[in-house]
Specification:
The complex is a heterodimer of chains A (275) and B (310). Chain A has 275 residues and is mainly alpha-helical. Chain A is built from eleven helices and no strands. In chain A, helix 6 packs across helix 7 (157-171). Chain A starts with 6 loop residues before the first helix and ends in a 6-residue tail after the last helix. Chain B has 310 residues and is α+β, with helices and mostly antiparallel strands. Chain B folds into two domains: 2-130, no CATH class; 141-305, Rieske Iron-sulfur Protein (3-layer Sandwich), CATH 2.102.10. Helices cover 31% and strands 27% of the residues of chain B. Chain B contains seven helices and 13 strands. In chain B, the strands form three sheets. In chain B, strands 4-3-2-7-6 form a five-stranded antiparallel β-sheet, with no helix packed on it. In chain B, strands 1, 11, 12 and 13 form a four-stranded antiparallel β-sheet that branches. The longest helix of chain B is centred in the middle third of the chain and has 29 residues, at 101-129. Chain B is elongated, with a radius of gyration of 40 Å. The model of chain B is unreliable at 1-17 and 84-88 (pLDDT under 50). Classes of the chains: A mainly alpha (275), B alpha+beta (310). At the A-B interface, helix 7 and helix 8 of A face loops of B.
Chain lengths: 275, 310
């Protein structure tokens, strides 16, 4: 016997599985999670393929730290700056969480672009994955809107004037620009409404859109699978060619009825070889 | 029999299954309307209820009569003649396929869902978008007694443009008293908002001491200066002393304010946009435009890109 588990241990193991089995029987979630985590990927996938998950991780960090920051942040012109100072200087570990959110925002955007570059250079945007590229572009736009709306929230001089310039930049767009800027400001002048609506967009509207698009994006990744890198033998169809020729008996010549082994060149002349 | 089998898509079993379905009927609509009338009558008038009850009885009777026709063994009306009997079962399923009950229910569910969705969404969307486009106007602002504005001198005035909104509505303007022109006081009042992208422009000259003065509203801060022009620190826009663009990315001259004099105090009115100023001081010729966002052309060929400015 290679391994003799004590009876007690086995019982404990079963006991642990009881809630998992209970959940699986009623929801199928455990199987779904296993399918998601242990699905097949090309054998020559490499570290570059982790950039998407890294971006997702950055987004999750932003979500978690953002939710916690919202406990203390006050989106009104009189209190916003003071509440940020309070978070940074007075709250235990506030400096860390705010720092994670502030720098994580840049990390998120950088990873987005790296992931996008990987997909482009690997040709992973091609059929049948065009739709996922489009979804990814939507995610990029929403992520940048997160950056734009989040930048105002500290309500310091940099934040204020950067947003003034940003909104007026939108106003110069032909035809709809002036309407867009009025919508962003919540009126004719930057003020209380601007800050609170930027806060609402930053923490409710845009994250909702981001989460929805991420779900669709992941669904398509799971449905369509991961692409091999461009240097992949398999992706280039080389192995498939081997399989075909092997079926025709050209790679490993089969013995004839009389026991003699044909040479490969002979095989191609019998009419059974490649066209 | 052979005749029937030759018809495409029609088998005897199919007809058999179809035969047990009650034929389509319009009476439930009338019955439902009558019930609605009864309920309405409970609120408005007894007679409406009575009429509703009568209608419900009539339509209910007609509905039941229609549904139970087969059970009672009554011949179907109109299509009863024996020679046409072979044709009748063909036509009915075709009609049914055109607009079946399940299709009606599907359409009704989707339609009702859409209606409910619209009822909820339209006001919310309107609330999200519309308030931003309501013309909030610009309240007049008292920026202090006239003694503070000596003739031919520039003052940098920082004021609260909307007392209700507090410090967030602090704005700055450059004010010069041009003296009397034809017995009428003249002031040049230029907004400090750069018309490139909205940064605060600075006077090109030494700022004087800051002094706070009381007004009938919120106190304002004055500072005398002797500018040679105005410049924007953000992207290098430069303006001359009348606010005309001389260099950099701005697309028009600096915005200005209307003014009035009430009880010896200078009051700021609405801001307005300016394309270009000809002449100087009291003699300046200015064409006023509605206040536009920075970067928006108010004249010239580019104005076609901004046909409607909210």
């Amino acid at each position: 016997m290679p391994r003799a588990k004590s009876k007690r241990r086995q019982q404990a193991g079963h006991l642990l599985m009881v809630p998992v089995d209970w959940l699986e029987e009623r929801s199928g979630l455990v199987g779904g999670l296993k399918y998601f985590l242990f699905r097949k990927v090309p054998r020559d996938s490499n570290w570059f393929h982790t950039l998407g998950s890294a971006t997702l991780t950055a987004f999750i960090v932003q979500t978690v730290t953002g939710v916690v920051l919202a406990f203390y942040y006050k989106p009104s012109p009189d209190e916003a700056y003071a509440s940020i100072q309070f978070i940074t200087n007075d709250l235990t570990l506030g400096w860390l969480v705010r720092g994670m959110h502030r720098w994580g925002a840049s990390v998120f955007i950088i990873l987005l672009f790296l992931h996008m570059g990987r997909v482009f250079l690997f040709g992973a945007y091609k059929y049948p994955r065009e739709l996922n590229w489009l979804l990814g572009v939507g995610l990029l736009v929403l992520a940048m809107l997160e950056g734009f709306t989040g930048y105002l929230l500290p309500w310091d001089q940099t934040a204020y004037w950067a947003t003034v310039v940003g909104i007026n930049l939108n106003a110069t767009a032909p035809f709809l620009g002036p309407f867009l800027s009025d919508f962003l400001r919540g009126g004719q002048e930057i003020g209380t409404e601007t800050l609170s609506r930027f806060y609402s967009m930053h923490m409710l509207l845009i994250p909702g859109g981001l989460i929805g698009l991420i779900v669709l994006h992941l669904y398509l990744v799971i449905r369509l699978g991961v692409t091999s890198p461009p240097w992949s033998d398999e992706a280039a169809g080389r192995e498939r060619a081997e399989v075909v020729t092997a079926k025709r008996g050209l790679v490993e010549p089969r013995p004839r009825g009389d026991g003699s082994v044909p040479s490969p060149s002979e095989g191609t002349l019998t009419g059974e070889g490649p066209r | 029999m052979a005749d029937e089998l030759e018809r495409p898509g029609e088998t005897p079993e199919h007809e058999d299954a179809e035969a047990h379905l009650p034929s389509p009927t319009i009476w439930p609509f009338g019955f439902a309307g009558a019930v609605a009338l009864i309920l309405l009558g409970l609120i408005i008038s007894f007679w409406a209820t009575a009429f509703g009850i009568a209608l419900a009885v009539v339509f209910g009777f007609l509905w039941i009569r229609q549904v139970t026709r087969e059970v009672r063994g009554e011949p179907e009306p109109l299509e009863a003649p024996a020679p046409g009997a072979a044709e009748e079962p063909v036509e009915e399923p075709e009609e049914a396929e055109g607009y079946t009950r399940s299709k009606f229910l599907e359409g009704a569910t989707l339609g009702l869902g859409a209606a409910i969705g619209a009822i909820v969404t339209v006001p919310v969307l309107g609330f999200a978008v519309a308030p931003a486009f309501v013309d909030q106007g610009y309240p007049d602002v008292d920026i202090g007694p006239l003694e503070n504005y000596p003739e031919e001198e520039w003052q940098i005035v920082t004021f609260t443009s909307n007392a209700d909104k507090g410090a967030v509505s602090r704005r700055t303007a450059f004010v010069r008293n041009n003296g009397l022109k034809d017995q009428v006081p003249s002031f040049t009042i230029i907004s400090n908002r750069c018309v490139h992208l909205g940064c605060p422009t600075q006077p090109q000259g030494p700022p004087g001491e800051l002094r706070d003065i009381e007004t009938s509203q919120t106190p304002v801060t004055l500072s005398a200066t002797t500018p040679s022009g105005f410049g924007c620190p953000c992207h290098g826009g430069a303006y001359d002393i009348e606010g005309n663009r001389v260099a950099g990315p701005p697309v028009r001259a600096l915005d200005r304010y209307e003014f009035s004099i009430i009880d010896g105090s200078l009051w700021l009115g609405s801001p307005y946009s300016v394309s270009e100023v000809e002449g100087e001081g009291a003699d300046a010729v200015i064409v006023k435009y509605r206040p536009a966002d920075p970067g928006v052309h108010v004249d010239g060929p580019e104005q076609v890109f901004y046909p409607i400015v909210p």
